Each structure stands twice: as C-alpha cells, then as structure tokens.
Hints:
- With 362 residues, the chain is of the alpha+beta class.
- It folds into two domains: 16-213, no CATH class; 217-360, no CATH class.
- It has helices spanning 2-15, 42-45, 85-88, 113-119, 152-155, 163-170, 190-197, 210-213, 215-253, 255-263, 268-304, 311-314, 325-342, 344-347, 355-360, and strands spanning 21-25, 37-38, 52-66, 71-79, 92-95, 108-112, 126-131, 137-147, 158-162, 176-177, 179-184, 205-209.
- Strands 1, 3, 4, 5, 6, 7, 8, 9, 11 and 12 form a ten-stranded mixed beta sheet that branches. Strands 2-10 form a two-stranded antiparallel ribbon.
Amino acid sequence: xxxxxxxxxxxxxxxxxxxxxxxxxxxxxxxxxxxxxxxxxxxxxxxxxxxxxxxxxxxxxxxxxxxxxxxxxxxxxxxxxxxxxxxxxxxxxxxxxxxxxxxxxxxxxxxxxxxxxxxxxxxxxxxxxxxxxxxxxxxxxxxxxxxxxxxxxxxxxxxxxxxxxxxxxxxxxxxxxxxxxxxxxxxxxxxxxxxxxxxxxxxxxxxxxxxxxxxxxxxxxxxxxxxxxxxxxxxxxxxxxxxxxxxxxxxxxxxxxxxxxxxxxxxxxxxxxxxxxxxxxxxxxxxxxxxxxxxxxxxxxxxxxxxxxxxxxxxxxxxxxxxxxxxxxxxxxxxxxxxxxxxxxxxxxxxxxxxxxxxxxx
Length: 362
C-alpha cells in the first residue's frame, strides 16, 4: 500500500507537468525550445486512438527572472485554454492560474515555492522576465500563483505563463504551439498506444514518452517494486517457519495423547487432521489480527498523515497510502495456501510415533 502510494503520488506530480506522450516537430537540436506545430493538424483535432483521453498544446522558452534584488534562470512553459487545471490543482500552494480567456495574453505567471523563496516573491508581486534571443526582450509579469511539488526537475526551473506570450515573442500565429501533450485513459497502455500513434503522426513529427524523459523515476519504481517482493518473501518465510515450529512443538507436547489415540484405533490421517486444523486456526487468527492492524493503520495514515517525510528526499511530505484490494486479498490467499502446505511437514512425524513408546514418552 505504501509503495503504490509513493508511485501514484509521484506520477500524479509528473503528469501534472507533462503528458504521457509528447508530440513535437522533428528537430536535431536538443534545446528547450521546439519548432512550431499547428493545433489544426488532424492528430490534434481528431485523436485517432480510443486510448487518448486529452490533448493539450504547450510551448517552452528559456529566460531570466529578475527582481530588484536577484536574478534566476528559468524555463517558461506556455499553457493554453485546454490546459488540464484539475490535474495541476493539487500542486498549488496559493493563488490561481493565469487568466487565459482575455483578448490579449495574460500578464500573469505561476512560479514554484522554491523560486519564490529564492527571489523573495509572493502572490501579487511583480517581476521582470528577460527573454534572450536576437534582441533581448523584457516583460513585466505579476505573480498569480505559487506551486510546489518537491521535485527539483520542476520546482527549480519551471514557471507557467500564457502560451500567447510565447507566440508573440516567437512571431508565431495563433494556432502554433511547441508541441502536444497526450494523456491516456490508462497509463498502463502507454507502450501499446505509443506504437499505435507512430502510424498516425506526420513525417515531420516525433514522439517521446514520460518514461524516456523521467527515466530515473521509473528506474526507482522498478527498484522499489523489487524490494516489495523481497520483503513479502521474507515475511512469508518467517510466517511459515513460525507455523511449522509451533506445530512441531505441539506434536512433541502431545506425544502421549497421540499414542493413546492410536491405541484407541485412531489412524495417522485422523490425528494429522487435528493438528493441521489447529495450525490453520492459529494462522488464520494471526492473519485476521494482522489485517486489522495493517488496514487500520493504513486508514489512519491516509486520512490524517500522522507519519511525516522529508520532501527533499522523498518528494512528498507524508507517507502515502493507496488502497489495492486485489493485492491485499491476493497476499492473504497466498499466505493461507503456503502455510497450509507447510503444516504437512511437522505432522509427518505423527506417522512414526508408535503407541507403546509414545505412552511411555516423558
């Protein structure tokens, strides 16, 4: 539950800044700026795949943000009217998005909490953005909002502005953007959707996925996933060992009883069933209380965030919890099945016990 919580929280932050798939114009240049693409192209106007949930245009332009006291290098990301504000909203600390509905471009920007702290800015303050191109151009902008993700890739660099500002600076028409951000209904279909989209893009376009751009995060997820299996495996081994040990002790303690039962005509199979039943009863009781405590703690942590984290190291300020009932039920079924198999090991001793020696056993 904690692992899935980490993964979902971090993916939510990443997806609020970039799409699952990015479509840009083919360019051998690796700069932050892209060649312009028209939003009137068929791929944007009529998405060809049923897996596509949303497409939005964006543009990027490097710049310098200056106040009366300091200056800082930034990357301005231009957003359009169809920007997914609901996806971005959880990152907002204070303020609001720029107004994108006016006749002229909005003279408002959103900056990160990191940039605000470095430049001593707050909502309502003004700052000047210098765009370095053939001729340096300056724009005075008002801080309309402040966001925070805890992810350096975004917080130390990105600010958001009206895409029409970048269109004006680049002398682009109203229908031009730097690229498309494509969101899917199901992120698990990313590889399939990417292959299918390659058949529909124009010759001058190229695709990139979020996995390629943020490969370090997905490598981390893979490592965490591997750790989860290792930890569950260790827990399963310990549970099986404890159950087998307890049953073995019970068999040794009940040796005389086993001898009496055999003398009265009980078969080895009947006696084994007694011990297997008791072993499973103890295991199920432990599983019940383990689930009660584990799920209870998960509920409390999800609702009240009582365990904090340092966002500088973990990207979030609390231990996240994500409910995955299929995994919970699957782990419980696996545990019961394996313990049931393990219980057959100690009870095999019963068949070797003879009535005469066992009755004398002390």
